From TrEMBL:
It comes from Eiseniibacteriota bacterium. PROSITE patterns: DNA_MISMATCH_REPAIR_1. Residues 367-425 are annotated as: Disordered. GO terms for cellular component: mismatch repair complex. This is DNA mismatch repair protein MutL.
Amino acid sequence: MTRSIRRLAPETASRIAAGEVIERPLSALKEILENALDAGARSIAVQVERSLDHAFQVADDGTGIAAGDLELALERHATSKIATLEDLDRLGSLGFRGEALPSIAAVSRLRITSRRREADGASFVLVEGGRAVERGASARAPGTTVEVADLFFNTPARRKFLHSPAGELRAALRLLECYALAYPEVGFRMTVDGRERLSWPALPVSGLAPEDHGGAPGLHDYRERASALWGARHAAQLLDALGERDGMRIEALLGLPEHARATREGQVFIVNRRWIQSPPLSQALRRAYGNLLPGGRFPASTLWLTVPPARLDVNVHPTKREVRFADESAVFTLVAGACAKSLAHIHPPLTVVRGGAATEPRWADRVQERAGEQPYLRLGSLRPEPPGLASPGGGPAGPGVSSPGAGILAGDRSEPEAAGAGPREPELWQLHRTYILAPVRGGLVIVDQHAAHERILYEDARARLEGARGSAQQLLFPAVIDLSRSQFDLVLELGQWLNQLGWDLAPLGPPSVVIHGVPSDLTRENPGRFLQDLLDEVSESTARESDTDVAEIVARSYACHAAIKAGDPLSQPEMRALIDRLFATSRPHGDPHGRVTYVRLDLDELNKRFGRT
Ligand SMILES: Nc1ncnc2c1ncn2[C@@H]1O[C@H](COP(=O)(O)OP(=O)(O)O)[C@@H](O)[C@H]1O
Ligand SMILES: [Mg+2]
């Protein structure tokens, strides 16, 4: 075998390299658009002739390029945006690789006409397949016009694989839409063969006053832009979400569950004003919607995320469509949390049967089943049965299993319901001491015991903190515990809140506290340890979250640490109480962090899977 290694001719090498940056006609438009935005344009006009690969031009009113720099701009790795690798840590522009213009120039006929504000006139250069063929003076207002014609004329292989021109144009409209969302202060216009396809005026962006978070636009501006894009009625139905943590900021406009889509097409992610694709952001968003959406539906939402540039790697791919977060899990938590909070007041479209046959569940008409065939849960009673009445020996968690939650889920011990009244309730099953399986009409509900309890305790805690003071369970032997100095200070600071929750505490003097009573439905056997966990969680959360809604933080921390855990065995009455109480909360489908609390398995689905159609 003979081998010979050759250096590629420069034109060949640059055409091959160009293929990475300019994968398709849309990429050329994207790069040129990003250059206009980087140049501080307030008005951008796109004109397409026939199709993107045939001819298009982008005109902006940005800074312009000096006549002497025009040809330098077309050289590979020539950029005005960064000088050293470290500059990437402070990146404020969309471009930085200095590859776009030379790449486009290598595979098209490209003309750039530009004028800086202070220059007397404009100049232009015309490049064909990477070679400058003409240059000279021209007339133009300050700004830049880039014209691209005959894309891929000299790379026949690429030409063969082009998408349909109509599809490419649709993608171009979406591209403009996404950048319009990222830059509400910029006006966009696009015409195709002389016909106007879109026109969005520049908005006087409120947040651009430097005192508002560093001169960036805010939700108000985004909403206004959304209204220009999608119509006022649609925009009015979007929900605001806002959150901040560790120098990161999330703003979002969330689509209602009924506007969810079958693909992720309705999702726009903008990170540091860059339109990107991001599976983690998509997952965080999905997490926030929890049970509000069935599987296979994707929320239509726009997210604007701001992170410190040094915590973001934008140099993952030549097209710059992907980024990497240094703090991915923190980003996830921030996004999922902020969005879940905003969605919290929406009820899921599916509700488990309440109160027996008299009230039909909302999904009843979706379930094909013969009446009376399926047992269903009798929900709607807040009151759990006392342990003694439980059907014994049933599920895997039968009697005799010692249970840390025993009797405690059954917070209220009023009189038992008359035995034998009403339909016999179906058995509940505990799976791997983590999930509770509950038959409902038309299928099965699988409840995450920890998440469900967290939701219950969270709402309980909120109610107590909002005034309905919680009852305390007095300890027979008051416990003296030693706290750290900051925990002790926090007890003093939170005194009122802790009291509302049902704690009966007496500070002895740093660092000791006497616990006389604990919240009445506390499941944890070591109240001192629990108090410390609670204090630590509160202090961590208040340090992390900028909106210091103390009641919210206390409620969440309380719920999180007081809830039964995966691995805790539960008896029948405990499971029953847990489910009853879960579905009596205002938002049974998600825990306070936005994780789902239960999953439904439909009988139709099972039948289908077993071939019983
Ligand atoms: N529309 C424009 N307005 C002003 N300057 C521009 C414009 N387009 C390109 N340039 C200049 O040309 C340079 C090279 O552009 P490009 O090849 O896209 O690389 P990059 O954007 O990564 O710097 C830019 O750094 C910028 O200085
Ligand atoms: Mg660029």
